[in-house]
Amino acid sequence: MLKLPNKKDKQMDLFEAGLPKELFELDKELKNIDQFLDDERFMEPFVQHFQSSTGRPTIPVETYLRMMYLKHRHGLGYETLVKEISDSIKWRTFCKLKLNDPVPDSTTLIKATKRYGEKIINEINELLVEKAREKKVIRGRKLRVDSTTVEADIHYPTDAGLLADGIKAVTKTINKLKESGDKAAQGFRDRTRSTKKRAFKASNAKGKKEQINKITSELVGIAEKVIASAKKVKGRLEDGHLGTKLEQQMELLKQVIHQTKEVLTGNTHIPDRVVSIFDPEARPLKKGSPQSTCRVWPQTLS
Residue 190 gets which letter from DSSP? Predict the structure, then answer.
């Protein structure tokens, strides 16, 4: 559950009080959004929604909403978002976090988004657009996530490459569990070496469709074995950050396996296709030739 907003202003500690005020000043856009989210008329429907929920409180609503705004505004993944906020005094200020406050981790944010995400973001979208129109902060009739795009910092997606990335990600997480001495990870076989060999062969087989399909099919087989082994590891794990991360990576890899099988059967029209293991929210958009991969975010005025 999310905490309800704290009506008491957080006071600076002695360390913060000794820093120049300029470090804490928000830019024009963040000032406007901050004012919108501080408006009790804006927060009221969300307060009522969260009051009806049960569970142990983890993130104040005011912090969660601001973190989600930064995430979608700048097209960031959860882990990158947490790092950027941790490193930025202005973003901490915007998110109502003092310098000595821990930034909610990616796992906590993901769980909160799964529970409240789509419905709440849609409601916020409508209310934020209504208020933004009044202040003329946002262009257009409606705040749409497809109004502005930016090129994503990922390599060109291929089925073989995505499978290799997924196998690598799952294996890396389990290896971290091994290094920590977690017995649940023992017995897991590292298949990244054979994966790299096949991914390399696939990248050098440009134009040779039959050869690429054969290698990709082999990678599907390896990925399925990795999933089966990882599932056993996950079943022995206690709840924790790495366990949650492993589950998310497994789900992504399963999705990549499914879409790759579809492509191998000749179906290339796959909605919501994963194009990056490391940036699942990236989407392919036509921009000349070849196809480029982009993130999307709302359009705003500077």
Answer: -
Q: Does 151 score more than 50 pLDDT?
A: no
Instruction: Please give the residue range of the domain that contains residue 7.
Output: 2-144
Q: Which two tokens stand for residue 182?
A: 């977690």
Report yes or no: 92 and 71 within 8 Å, Cβ to Cβ.
no
Q: Would you mind telling me the total number of residues written for the chain in this entry?
A: 302
Quick check: 262 pLDDT over 60? yes
**CA nearest to 175, candidates 230, 221, 129, 228:** 230
Pick 190 or 118 by higher pLDDT.
Answer: 190
Q: Which of 121-130, 144-153, 155-164, 221-230 has the highest mean pLDDT?
A: 221-230
Residue 300 inside a domain? The answer is no
Rounded percentage of the chain residues whose pLDDT exceeds 70: 69
Distance CA 302, CA 290 (A): 31
- Measured between alpha carbons, how far is 142 from 145 in angstroms, rounded to an integer? 10
Which of 120, 119, 149, 144 shows the shortest CA–CA distance to 132? 144
- 298 within domain boundaries: no
Q: Is pLDDT above 50 for 299? A: no
- CB-CB neighbours of 299 under 10 Å: 15
Pairing of strands 2-3, 59-60: parallel
Same domain, 173 and 57: no
Rounded CA gap, 140 and 147, in Å?
9
**Per-residue CA distances from 102 to 12, 59, 64 (Å):** 15, 11, 13
| Predicted local confidence at residue 279, as pLDDT | 75
For 145, the token pair is 């996530």
